[in-house]
Amino acid sequence: xxxxxxxxxxxxxxxxxxxxxxxxxxxxxxxxxxxxxxxxxxxxxxxxxxxxxxxxxxxxxxxxxxxxxxxxxxxxxxxxxxxxxxxxxxxxxxxxxxxxxxxxxxxxxxxxxxxxxxxxxxxxxxxxxxxxxxxxxxxxxxxxxxxxxxxxxxxxxxxxxxxxxxxxxxxxxxxxxxxxxxxxxxxxxxxxxxxxxxxxxxxxxxxxxxxxxxxxxxxxxxxxxxxxxxxxxxxxxxxxxxxxxxxxxxxxxxxxxxxxxxxxxxxxxxxxxxxxxxxxxxxxxxxxxxxxxxxxxxxxxxxxxxxxxxxxxxxxxxxxxxxxxxxxxxxxxxxxxxx
Amino acid sequence: xxxxxxxxxxxxxxxxxxxxxxxxxxxxxxxxxxxxxxxxxxxxxxxxxxxxxxxxxxxxxxxxxxxxxxxxxxxxxxxxxxxxxxxxxxxxxxxxxxxxxxxxxxxxxxxxxxxxxxxxxxxxxxxxxxxxxxxxxxxxxxxxxxxxxxxxxxxxxxxxxxxxxxxxxxxxxxxxxxxxxxxxxxxxxxxxxxxxxxxxxxxxxxxxxxxxxxxxxxxxxxxxxxxxxxxxxxxxxxxxxxxxxxxxxxxxxxxxxxxxxxxxxxxxxxxxxxxxxxxxxxxxxxxxxxxxxxxxxxxxxxxxxxxxxxxxxxxxxxxxxxxxxxxxxxxxxxxxxxx
DNA sequence: CGACATTATGACACCGGTGTCAGACTGTAT
DNA sequence: ATACAGTCTGACACCGGTGTCATAATGTCG
Lengths: 339, 339
Hints:
Two copies of one chain form a homodimer. Chain A has 339 residues and is α/β, with parallel strands linked by helices. Chain A has three domains: 6-49, lambda repressor-like DNA-binding domains (434 Repressor (Amino-terminal Domain), Orthogonal Bundle); 58-162 and 296-324, Rossmann fold (3-Layer(aba) Sandwich); 164-294, Response regulator (Rossmann fold). Chain A contains 13 helices and twelve strands. Chain A has a six-stranded parallel β-sheet with strand order 2-1-3-4-5-11, with helices on one face. In chain A, strands 7-6-8-9 form a four-stranded parallel β-sheet, sandwiched between helices. In chain A, helix 1 (6-13) packs across helix 2, helix 1 crosses helix 3 (32-45) and helix 5 (73-89) packs parallel to helix 13 (296-312). The longest helix of chain A has 17 residues, at 73-89. Chain A starts with 5 loop residues before the first helix and ends in an 11-residue tail after the last strand. Chain A binds chain B through residues 48, 50-53, 55-56, 61-63, 73-74, 76-77, 80-81, 84, 91, 93-96, 98, 115-118, 225, 251, 254-255, 257-259, 261-262, 280-281, 284-286, and chain B through 48, 50-53, 55-56, 61-63, 73-74, 76-77, 80-81, 84, 91, 93-96, 98, 115-118, 225, 251, 254-255, 257-259, 261-262, 280-281, 284-286. Chain A binds a DNA duplex (30 and 30 nucleotides) through residues 5-7, 15-22, 24-25, 28-31, 34, 49-59.
């Protein structure tokens, strides 16, 4: 199996390299006959262009980088799966790069990544989607990027998010309609914009239904299971104890459920619990968690597709889009008991 | 910020490109003085070699591919994290490529991957680590590869695994020592070699303790939560019902726990449940799952490090290694009650 | 001191593509 | 027939490195 290069194709077809290149890139100004002939030789020799050589000539790598720093493994998995789908469709590859937002040398780290990998573009997932420093850096370096699940408005870059505020509003309203008025809330990581949005949705819902907002019912989390466990302790120790808990993601909700079960507080009879994200764990535990399904894969897929589109021909108008979140009810929430 | 290439460095330092290249690659036969001088210019101009150009000249990409087809997201996350660690250490990048083992065109798919990405090497995770077809293909194409958690012996390639058989043996023995004799077993995916190994460990332990092997207690799973739920139903419907269940991974064990809880079978008082892997879910549910901790990250990290080592200078003797698995006891198992 | 091995360096082709530009070949209007 | 625009094609340099080889400089030994 000898190597098949553009030269061998050109020779075999009796045309110049450049013409072969033109056919490869679907450039105009190639006669139909020539194009046919070359395409046939592609088949015959089973020719595949070398992406590295292409990359060198065009200063591209055909690689998209995905930056993340997220305690939720399932979120990352979903992000990857959406990004991969888009990449494969357009013959790009996906390079994953976990790193820390708080690392003092975030910029250095990304700089390093860029120089060693020559990425064609970067997908920023939370909390990077909202990092002004990083965004400024990428802009200055003229690296195309797309932001997933960010709340920053008025930016002129590609951005896809889902409606966190509305989702949280609906979920809270669901709890209220079940008769709950003392609804505890566990906030997410302060660096993620979703955290504020979800909290706003919660507040809007209780306000709409004339329920007083009680700061004592709010706990600070950071999306990790561990932080959920801490918040759970604080909340379940409250007196009077709330009848429902809304955690900003399913991991933290699972932690609440675990502690409640340990303390023999019956869920949902004595305590309703709800999460956010519709992570796998929401249906892997009993009772299953009522939650908000966020289209994470789809968001990321769209973000990467737009990014790739942007790379091949920069758009004037930035693509910005908001997807809807959807309420999923399971066994962990029920009407408040009269006890 | 102008582009700094090897040419500008050479010019600035007053030497030839080739000498710069020599310094870059730590080649011998460069006088200390020259080396110093060039290194200083690197600093001064902040020069970073272009990996794409390098790749073209050396026919390398500095990218390692990771193949997987695994229903357990957390397993994949752990695999990635180990692989990433090794890659970053050696300035390689990691490209992830999920695909289906059973896909009729697995080979085509990988072929495609290789031609579009020019990977320097591939890490095979289960079930690919045991795919004879794929291994034969990679061997023929002379693509370096490393196999993670495979059971095939006598192969002359890099292979790292953990001791599944021993782990399962210890866990089973733990249950036996708690007084259980009717221990149900849920098998994993038939394509994964770990499945047979874990099953053997189970059988060896009960045999050692003079317990009769009962085929009725064995259910077929495939490592997915869903398959665990099906097996759980079969097992909990048995009469007499076993007093303990050993599932081949934690997801399936979680499914057993969920069903048991739904049916108000008390765990661990009426039923002990154990899993395998020490996945996050094992400690995110109540009661926490007794399980076997497998060093997935470490296995993968070592596999990738050896792979990279092998790429830069092929070894004569293949690196093969077995890591130990460790029993972790949590609340889901306890001594059999006398009822 | 001459013969020879060793070290240090650079010129140049090459990896496998793409960009630029010039020139040949069409077709159409005058 | 002539001028001119538009289409098609190839020669050649170039992307930013590395491999090969020749040659210059240095060291070693009899």
